[in-house]
Amino acid sequence: MEFTHFDKNGNAVMVDVTEKSDTVREALAAGLIQVSEKVYAAVKEGSVKKGDVLAVAATAGIMGAKKTAELIPMCHILPLTGCRVWFEMEPETCRIYCFCEVKITGKTGVEMEALTGVSTALLTVYDMCKAIDKTMEIGQIHLCRKTGGRSGTVVNGLQNKSEGQPV
Fold first, then answer.
1. Which residues, 6 or more positions from 84, have their beta carbon under 8 angstroms from its beta carbon?
2. Among 39, 75, 100, 118, which is 20 to 30 Å from 53 by CA?
3. CB under 8 Å to 133, separation ≥6 — which residues?
């Protein structure tokens, strides 16, 4: 197996995608933050002192997706053509699920951008609510599905709340 991020001398390199064709590529990632009943109620009621938690977190998630190449060393700088972040709240478990869908017409995929978007959005929820409770837990961040490119469509077999959500 050839490792694509190393040259023949073992030096780290960015993969050269110059010869690849542009194709439409999409990715959907998901994750969650487990919060206390007090945090859940404050987010739902809009009473967090820092503002509208989910609106700010959605904006942060989009910004994170756009800046992925600045954070992950071997990621290409990509001109995203679409990015959407949304949340689903689950009152019985006090979980807030986050989803990030990213689109591009380009030479490489946007899985890392979708995953970074989810991570950034969930970290923003934590930041905005930490004055209420610092015991929140972020987890289960994963790629739900991706389309386009040489590998075609890939659907993650993990159970997640994104089933049925449009890509």
1. 62, 100, 101
2. 75
3. 35, 36, 38, 39
Residues in the chain, how many? 167
3-state secondary structure of 39: helix
Q: How many CA atoms lie within 13 A of 88 on its CB side?
A: 13
CB 25 within 8 A of CB 147: yes
Helices (H) and strands (E) in the chain, counts: 4, 5
Output the pTM of the full model.
Answer: 0.88
Distance between CA atoms of 47 and 50, rounded to whole angstroms?
9
Sole residue written with tokens 């386009």? 148
CA atoms within 13 A on the CB side of 23: 17
Does residue 133 carry a catalytic annotation?
no
pLDDT at 164: 45
pLDDT one-digit tens code per residue, 83-116: 999 999 999 999 999 999 999 999 989 999 999 9
The one catalytic residue in 16, 52, 127, 133 is: 127
